Amino acid sequence: MVEKTTDLFDKLNSVQGTRELNNYIKSLSDDRITPTFAGYISYMVEERGLTRSEVISSSLIERTYGYQIMNGVKNAGRDKIIALCLAAHLTLEEIQRALEIAKEGILYPRDPRDSMIIFAVNNGYSVRKLNSLLTESGSDILN
Fold first, then answer.
1. Location of each CATH 1.10.260 domain in the chain
2. What's the pLDDT score for residue 4?
3. What is the pLDDT of residues 57-109, one digit of tens each?
4. Residue 121 neighbours by CB under 8 Å, 6+ apart
């Protein structure tokens, strides 16, 4: 069974020495599968009853490259991750999780561009509509 992150923090904070730390780390490898962005987005697309082709088309990512990302052949950058997540209708929390899994920076509300992305996610914007908002404000579109 996979433990909640808060439970893991509690365990880690109670570790007293290197022996306990090594045991803690070993317990992670015993029952933990490291998620990938490709696995996460594929799962979320399926959960939403969407197809990969619908999501890739809506993300405005070139078709072949989109499939390579979703198959785990290519690693997506932050903007591509956001575009795919937005096209898959993920919530803000789910997008933040996707960015964490991909080891990309999460959306930060003090950053003006990220604030616009957060606004777009919370208001159900498409990638095309978000890019229009970003263009109007002089920000870079999702590339």
1. 37-136
2. 74
3. 999 999 999 999 999 999 999 999 999 999 999 999 999 999 999 999 999 99
4. 86, 90, 91, 92, 95, 107
What are 7's two structure tokens?
């439970």
123 Cβ contact partners less than 8 Å away, ≥ 6 residues apart:
none
Q: Would you give the end-to-end CA distance of the chain in angstroms?
A: 38
Annotate 38-75 with b (16+ C-beta within 10 A) or e (fewer): bebbbebbeeeeeebeebbebbbbeeeebebbbeeeee
CB of 56 closer than 8 Å to CB of 45: no
Q: Report whether pLDDT(31) > 60.
A: no
Q: Which residue has the tokens 């990309």?
A: 104
Backbone angles phi, psi at 57, to 5 degrees: -60, -45
Return the structure tokens found at 112: 């003006």
pTM of the model: 0.79
| Both structure tokens of 6 | 């808060």
- CATH fold of 37-136 reads 434 Repressor (Amino-terminal Domain) (1.10.260)
